[in-house]
Write a structure and sequence with these properties.
The protein has 28 helices and 11 strands. By secondary structure, the protein is of the alpha/beta class. Among the domains are: 32-264, no CATH class; 288-368, no CATH class. Keywords: ANK repeat, DNA-binding, Homeobox, Repeat.
Length: 583
Amino acid sequence: MGSSQSSATSQGADDGMTSCNTGVHHCSFPMYVVKVSDFLEMEGVPEPHQVLRRKGLLHEWQPSFFVIFVSHQWLGRGSPDPSGQQMTVLRHALQAWIDGSMTVEVDLVRTFGDQRHFTTSYDRVATGYLFLDWFAIPQLTERADGVNDDATKSDTARAVQSIPAYVESCDMFVALVPDLVHSDTGLQCNYSTWLSRGWCRAELWCRLFSNREDTRVVVIFSDREALYIMPMDWQRSLIADGLFTVESDRTVVMNLGERALRSKIEHLDRWGPLTDYRFHLAQEPRLLGQQQGGFSLQGFLRHFSFPSLHDAVKHEGGMTGMLCAIVAGDGDIVETLVKHGADVNARVSGLGHLGYSDSLTLLMVAAYSSQEPKILSTLIMSRADPDIVSVSESGSLVTAAWLASQPGHVQVLLEKKADLAASPPLTGAVAVSSASTVKAFLEARCDAGAVSPNGFGPMYSVSFCGRGSPDAPAILQMLLSSRGDANARCKPRGLLYKECLRARVSAALWGLEGCTVYQRQMASLPGATALSIAAVMGDQRLVRLLLEHDAEHIANDRGDTPEDLARAAGHTDLLPILSTFNV
């Protein structure tokens, strides 16, 4: 819920309400849902709670229901979707799941973690139900005539307070994030802005930290593209830093997030797995904005359930003693473990589902998880090698510099004489980091036009990976200002080129529209410019910026123009923009 006309701090609770009170969070207002089949018959601007209730289209949640929770950002102050565009994307996506023309995929282009192809059953979607805030919650902006104001406010407040319980009760969680324009502000609303909203982050955390077996989050970018959320996207989206329409909601929502996280930790402590328990326990202070580190050795061992110092040092796989100390941000414990024989250059294993592939080193994890620069410095001073390379699935030579996520990381790596030439770090940094970090690399004379050994470079990387980052336009602007070539064509080599060739076979057989998201992206890459990549990814911000910098409509090696790629990926909103500049 990206916007609401009522503050969550408003009071009013019904102690007799039992609907959805099956989990950690309290439900104080009934959970109303709409049948998917009824939703598919709707058209145009979505009707509010009171109208749907009069029409008999709302159903009170029952445990037997298969419910899809839809989290979204409002596109207007008085209505969540004034033009009905957002709901149209959702209807088409649901229908595509039902008829089998679309599945949810892993974001293989961006992943440094679990690369398994998840399987999801869509059998129950057709007979399922939708939870959408506009449908489920009485809205102050759409009161029925004669409804008492105080009663409406009370119901709305109680429903808003119950959102975490609603999330827990749902079987599937969808973030609806097509790239659209807010009707009042004129600003873009997309994945990066959804991630920035405090309430959306709260809904996300309540899903991820629920004690359900399946806590995956599906992100719908268009009616042809749905991906599972990347772990690092939520791990860097702290509720405390989120944007709130009602500022007083911040403390209330932070308390909800804290309750969800601590409940998850308690559940994992009791039921396991131990790796996940230690990971979330180590993350807890950073996620809640609390001070990190400061453990005594014995306190550290007790806190993370290590029977002995020897076990913390020699434990292999999962959350080792070193990983617990690094993620918890405790440099003193890192030094202690190294002194007692811990391998400072060990590679991680068993953390793929948490976002860290088996090939990453401890130093890479420290950089990628945005630890304080002093942790990187401590590791390197303890003889961690900053130049160790991890080869990704696409043949990229990943180093700690690639994964640097703070300007201070760049400073530490430069001070410790890390080799920034063997694998140009900007290709990775523009995908995983902030504008200030990219600026630090550019000030260190890193070349905005340098490509990696597999032919992939910063201009392509930011276009592929930027839509989850609010800094992506600023990063692209810096690259362009540093002589990045908007019209340079990508020339994949090695493993990356082999991936592209395999994908092009699929594209030749089924067309780009019939390919998976990953196949479409890889098939499009040979000969693609940054504009073509931004078009296939559906990133309006980057498409506009590139066109303003005289990016040309150059076809890729298959002959696909940026318009062709946008159309194939379902990003038809880009077509007017591309045609306007194509003169």
